[in-house]
Design a protein that fits this description.
Blueprint: H1 11-24, H2 28-37, H3 44-62, E1 72-82, E2 85-94, E3 99-105, H4 110-123, E4 131-134, H5 139-149, E5 158-161, H6 167-180, H7 189-206, H8 216-227
Parallel strand pairs: 1-4, 4-5
Antiparallel strand pairs: 1-2, 2-3
Length: 232
């Protein structure tokens, strides 16, 4: 349990706060008040630090429980506010809505599209795509050609531009933003990325995209606890 060394709160409380914050779309202050009602006095800034430290770790540990992905990828971008400015959030899901990867970027150009697709391909090296569906952004064909020329993407992978086929990721953007809204934006790219990892992984659990020990919330709690070495 060295991951929680020198924390003055029990591990169960820390994981509960991280799980609730990433799952329900709460503000840090609102969550701190909820915990106070349960007899736990914790500062909102402390919960923030917990989310920054343990949400990415939760995402990392949970990946092995997410199973395989479809080879049919849907790629799109949306906006999130970071430091008072709008930034681009590149995201990819498979045709079933299973998260592939995401990346925050200052720009929405060929270089950013290339970096994101290269990152996603590395993340999903065991489940390479058979098709990639994007919008009509001109950056994607250029990025895909570069990846093919470098041997990072098979020439057999079909690139499609279809608004209809991308409905699944556009709907997913909307659901994610409903969780993001109470945060009133992020302050830095690093903290935004860590928090978004937590949001993404809890949405996958909630939507039944992970293998739970038992169905429902009980299975969710057991899985998260087991990932961090707590008794079932």
């Amino acid at each position: 349990m060295s991951l929680f060394k020198r924390r003055r709160f029990p591990v169960e409380i820390i994981l509960l706060c991280v799980r609730w914050y990433c799952k329900y779309g709460l503000s840090y202050r609102g969550l701190a008040e909820m915990m106070q009602e349960r007899g736990v006095s914790v500062d909102p800034s402390t919960i923030f630090r917990w989310v920054q430290r343990y949400a990415p770790e939760l995402e990392k540990r949970l990946r092995q429980y997410q199973g395989s992905r479809s080879g049919s990828w849907r790629v799109d971008e949306t906006y999130v506010r970071v430091g008072g400015r709008w930034k681009y959030l590149f995201r990819a899901v498979d045709k079933h809505g299973q998260l592939i990867d995401f990346m925050l970027s200052d720009r929405r150009n060929t270089r950013a599209a290339y970096r994101f697709l290269r990152k996603a391909l590395k993340m999903m090296s065991d489940y390479p795509p058979c098709s990639i569906t994007t919008d009509r952004l001109a950056s994607y064909p250029k990025a895909i050609r570069r990846l093919r020329s470098e041997g990072l993407l098979s020439k057999d992978v079909e690139h499609r531009t279809s608004k209809y086929l991308n409905n699944v990721i556009e709907a997913d953007h909307g659901a994610l933003k409903r969780v993001i809204r109470p945060t009133r934006g992020f302050q830095r790219m690093k903290t935004a990325s860590a928090t978004l990892r937590g949001f993404g992984v809890m949405r996958m659990i909630r939507r039944g995209r992970c293998m739970l020990p038992v169905p429902g919330v009980t299975g969710e709690i057991r899985l998260v606890n087991q990932l961090f070495g707590l008794a079932a």
